[in-house]
Amino acid sequence: MGTEKRTYISSGKAKDIYENSNDTLIFEFTDRVTAFDGKKKSEYHDKGKITCEIAEYWFKVLENNGIPTHYIECPTPTSMIVKKLDIVPVEVIWRNYVAGSLLRRYEAGDIVLPEGAEPKEGSPIPGGMIEFTTKFEAVDRPVNTDEIISKEWLNEEEIKYLTDLTKRINQIISQELADSDIILADFKVEYGRTSNGEIILADEVGTPDGCRFWNKDDFEKGVITSLDKDVFRKDSGDLTLTYRKLYNNLKKTNM
Ligand code: ADP
Ligand code: UDP
């Protein structure tokens, strides 16, 4: 399956999207990176290639573990052919540790933390937790399951199905990382509907754009060393070097 017939459709924040056939798309992973709802932007050499290779790796691992995904193949190091889906208008976040917006919302007095979690970056969340945010609004905002059901974005049964699938994805990735020097702190996934109504994993998964990965040795010494987009959000390191370090670490133990 080649990329020669492709027709440009649109550009997201990190990927360009092309139509490949009636029922498949091509994602071109670019070097673009954004944070804070697109307010902070930059480009980093090789970012697209590293991210595409990491996403491809995790899609294969998940498929091998029975998770249905849209992944078909990567015809070049920066492109991925996927099944075209009707994207579910909800982003799904899984958290194993306190970080990012969870801590900010707690500090703003908007939420209580799950039982057993401390209000400190890196505090473990016993059993993990799931959250949902909007997907197609100007700014992503947390949504509860009542709103998701009342807006008919998902029904109760589908929420349960996606919760179980996301929990399983967390287990598979965490298990795969068990022998590496990396902790999966949290991640975001998207799902979409196929033409026959099946809901499957979409977008990208397991990449440093959509996950928080921490160095395990440092974490055990009480220091959080990010191997993900937090280095860009916080201006705490070079993104390409950080993504390459994650990639090399994954390759060494897993790929
Ligand atoms: P964003 O600007 O939303 O961060 P990206 O730059 O990652 O997006 O571009 C990918 C876009 O393609 C996203 O809007 C995502 O929801 C959408 N998408 C992901 N997988 C599929 C799919 N299989 N079919 C249709 N659209 C998809
Ligand atoms: N995330 C993402 N896209 C989004 C929002 C979050 O990929 O639009 C990821 C983010 O990289 C992190 C996890 O989901 O791994 C949880 O993000 P959080 O809600 O803490 O928001 P952040 O502070 O990262 O914006």
Characterise this structure.
The protein is of the alpha+beta class and 255 residues long. The chain has 2 domains: 7-83, Phosphorylase Kinase, domain 1; 86-238, ATP-grasp fold, B domain (D-amino Acid Aminotransferase, Chain A, domain 1, 2-Layer Sandwich). 30% of the residues lie in helices and 31% in strands. The protein has helices at 47-64, 100-107, 145-150, 156-176, 216-220, 230-233, 239-253, and strands at residues 7-11, 15-21, 24-29, 32-35, 40-43, 71-76, 79-83, 86-87, 90-97, 124-134, 142-143, 182-189, 191-193, 199-201, 211-215. The strands form 4 sheets. The protein has a 5-stranded antiparallel β-sheet. A 5-stranded antiparallel β-sheet has the order 11-10-9-12-15. The longest helix is centred in the middle third of the chain and has 21 residues, at 156-176. Bound molecules: adenosine-5'-diphosphate and uridine-5'-diphosphate. Uridine-5'-diphosphate (UDP) is lined by residues 91, 93, 99-102, 140, 186-188, 210-212, 229. Adenosine-5'-diphosphate is lined by residues 12-15, 17, 25, 70, 82-85, 87, 190, 192, 202-203.
